[in-house]
Amino acid sequence: MNIIVKKNADEVSKEGANIFIEEINKKPNIVLCLATGSTPQGLYKELIKANKNNEVNFKRVKSFNLDNYIGLEKNDINNYDYYMREKLFNHINIDKENWLVPFVNEENYETYCKEYDQLLEESGIDLLLLGIGENGHIAFNEPSDKFSVGTHIVDLDEKTRKANSRFFDSIEDVPKQAITMGIGSIMKAKKIVLLAIGEKKKEVIKKLLSAEKIDPQFPASILLAHRDVTIITEEALYDKN
Ligand code: PGA
Fold first, then answer.
1. How many angstroms separate the Cα of 173 from the Cα of each of 50, 70, 84, 103, 152?
2. Is residue 79 lining ligand 1, measured as CB closer than 6 Å?
3. What is the pLDDT of residue 107?
4. For ligand 1, atom 2, which residue shows the shortest CA distance?
């Protein structure tokens, strides 16, 4: 794992955005997989700025997303389809038909997961963005007895619901389930960039950087087995010891 330590959160976002800009410029029809939550918002602002300054072109870029809640309408402010439109896609020159955020309802989830996997398989992810949960989850792959392979429905960990309740009126409003890409699909991405910012991530980053074995109870540890992972974090979270 390649570790980059920056002075503060803004610098982490800029560094992450620079990797995205460089990779898109190298391969204009790149396939991305993007993340939601607090962490990537600064990076998305940098991408919007770069697109407006003609430093990067999204015309031929294709994009998937890691996960989404179940039970929220597409225009609910906490639905990740809405998030991606608001935070990025409405502000860059990406084609509407070139991005897809997973979205299921109770009736169609089995076929939907299969279809999403098929699309991921056909496209192949070149560059995938990750945040990390305080419990070590990546996407919504929560600590578990075994690693998942493909897209599936998960029961959200109470820790995750609590951490994400800051976006909702109350914890009762946080959905109990989500759809997420599997660990297997994440590991197939050619290049992975994981950003970690904010004091709350200090413990989990320490655990990840000192992990010696891969353990499904600590999902992010799977990244030890990937050939091209870059972790970008801020000085305050980085404990060399
Ligand atoms: P956050 O979420 O960026 O909102 O901290 C990250 C995650 O839970 O994966």
1. 36, 12, 20, 18, 22
2. no
3. 75
4. 37
